[in-house]
Amino acid sequence: xxxxxxxxxxxxxxIAAGIGNLPECCDFLVCPPMIHMQTTRDVIKETGAAIACxxxxxxxxxxxxxxxDISAEMLAAFGCxxxxxxxxxxxxxxxxxxxKIADKAAAAHSKGLTAIIxxxxxxxxxxxxxxxxxxxxxxxxxxxxSATALNTVIAYEPVWAIGTGKTxxxxxxxxxxxxxxxxxxxxxxxxxxxxxxxGGSVKPDxxxxxxTIENVDGALIGGASLKADQYLAxxxxxx
Length: 239
What we know:
Layout: H1 5-19, E1 28-30, H2 37-47, E2 51-55, H3 72-77, E3 82-85, H4 88-93, H5 98-110, E4 114-119, H6 123-127, H7 131-142, E5 152-156, H8 170-185, E6 196-198, H9 204-211, H10 228-238
Helix pairs in contact: 1-2, 1-10, 5-7, 7-8, 9-10
């Protein structure tokens, strides 16, 4: 929940211009606040930049009397191809439970959207040694039957590393992403093709090390995405 229309336009223009200077090494997605989606989409069209758009959340329900919500159908009709569901802030602040997130992901799938399902433990849960139990429960409850390797992305975001400046160690990330991959094999066909993103204070100075870790297929970028040079530097680290 950041930025004015002018700021959003400036940010996406800088990102679009910078992508042209990067090798074709990754896919790009931006998920702006809905009030800035039109501006973002217009700039992407004007520049011809290869950037996909996505929503930060969607409703589990169809269109109707749900004031304040945005449906998956609305996102798809607007040209979005992705939507984030189950972000830690939705889980913590809005008290969204796994079954609700699964319903949102299913709604996204029904309209042709790729759902980015977020999972991750709190600092207290990690300190208590429950991090794998928590993530396993979230995967079991948040992934709907409609999920496939093509229409779903998993984003591991250790809550204690979001916006805190802390970053999970390479060993922590490697272990959890391997655990997630193994867990997915029990649930989905072609699970090896499903992308698993890392999200937790990803910055230009740690991106290259994170991207060398097995089963880390990309990044869910938070604060660094509000600065074009940092977003682009993280993308550049892929190569």
